[in-house]
Design a protein that fits this description.
The structure is a homodimer of 212-residue chains. With 212 residues, chain A is of the alpha/beta class. Helices cover 42% and strands 19% of the residues of chain A. In chain A, the strands form 2 sheets. Chain A has a 7-stranded mixed β-sheet. The first copy, chain A, has a 3-stranded antiparallel β-sheet with strand order 1-3-2. In chain A, helix 1 packs across helix 4 and helix 2 crosses helix 3. The longest helix of chain A has 19 residues. The N terminus of chain A is likely disordered. At the A-B interface, helix 1, helix 5, strand 10 and helix 8 of A face helix 1, helix 5, strand 10 and helix 8 of B. Chain A binds a DNA duplex (30 and 30 nucleotides) through helix 1, helix 3 and strand 2.
DNA sequence: ATTTTATAGATATTTTTATATCCATATTTT
DNA sequence: AAAATATGGATATAAAAATATCTATAAAAT
């Protein structure tokens, strides 16, 4: 490996903090602020200034020495890094409590995500709209995916259905699955799976509570 | 600090993996399995055997040399470590899409959590039940908290309301807040805040997707 | 004009977390 | 009965992430 193709890797923890920064920068921008220092951000985020400084430097946020990071420019680089500067079409499978809640979450527009279709098997859901999103029968998955050339799936089905649906998604050419089902999905290496599990957070909370 | 009161700290990452183990152990137990090896668990979880071994050793899971970890005994130590062996009463503030979804999530029983009350300000919600949980007006927060001696709050209100509600909760003597609002709450050091933010997961997903 | 100060920038250090290696032993295989 | 093997247990190493330290500089204060 030469020194030329060695791009500076950005750590996962840094990536996970970016949305938080982005939110704050949006607010600053709305208020007309043009510069903000890492110490000011630290107060807002309850992180250490050095963490913020390194995170923003890692994504190449523009700055002015002794003055802070440039608000507009930093928004641009974070959005570009995450691909949130234009909308990715996605769809959701499993219109249960959580699935419906996600369909109703309008914050996704700011996160580069547009949910264009939903799928379920229950007759009383299929054919209706949830928060403006049309619900199709799961049997139509492959067809709709192909027709609309969709790449991102949000999986909010019960645990026992998750792997079956996943196999269908993979066959249909899906590139990324945001998995809210409490299962470890088996997929080929070319497919990205991002697992979401709130019980981890609850475990953390309970452990801290116990040790008090 | 003497060497005596130095208890082996369990890492946060280990704690966050415990619910996953617990789920698998519940299944194994239901199937009558008495022992399971770290290699078998590794296949199921897609983690490395060494990670699982160290995690389980950290919480003091009982094992049999050359045979694996004892299913029933490991369930017991994990549950005890997390305090999930008996139910903690909790309540939820903010019966929006996400709040309602959480009220409908019956998996909390396995996670040591029982939601006994909900709060909101919308007249059409107050006085009704959501998934069997009574919704009170937010103005009654302090009263209900005190009356039922509640310690854990689940916060699913809009960002702009979060800090105000939090101040009320703190005054009422709440010990832990599970925060789903995209805000950094300010609380006294005695109060635990566990922040939940799905946009971090989405950022991770998008970053991986871009770098393909 | 001069001094002070807050900051990005760069580098170094520490801590945390993940991974690898070796060993003793109970189980399985031969 | 003997040999091979898979495993927990213990320790060592490596990688990742967080934190600290130092420097140059532009802005603010004097």
């Amino acid at each position: 490996m030469s020194i030329f193709n060695r791009k500076k890797e950005i750590s996962i923890q840094t990536i996970r903090r970016l949305p938080q920064y982005l939110r704050i920068f949006y607010n600053l921008h709305a208020y007309g602020r043009e510069l903000v220092s890492s110490t000011a951000l630290a107060e807002e985020t309850q992180l250490l200034p050095i963490v913020i400084k390194k995170d923003l430097q890692a994504v190449g946020a523009p700055s002015k020495l002794r003055a802070g990071f440039k608000v507009a420019g930093t928004i641009a680089v974070i959005e570009k890094f995450l691909g949130w500067n234009n909308l990715n079409k996605a769809f959701l499978v499993g219109v249960g409590h959580l699935g419906a809640a996600l369909l109703g979450f309008d914050g996704f527009k700011n996160h580069g995500l547009e949910i264009v279709a939903a799928f379920d098997t229950h007759p009383e859901k299929v054919g209706n709209q949830f928060h403006g999103v049309q619900v199709y029968h799961t049997a139509q998955l492959a067809t709709v995916i192909e027709k609309q050339n969709l790449k991102i799936a949000i999986l909010t089905v019960p645990a026992n259905a998750a792997q079956g649906i996943t196999d269908t998604l993979v066959t249909a050419g899906i590139k990324a699955i945001w998995n809210f089902a409490p299962v470890n999905l088996t997929v080929p290496p070319s497919v990205i799976v991002q697992k979401e599990d709130i019980s981890s957070g609850l475990a953390e909370l309970c452990a801290k509570l116990k040790s008090r």
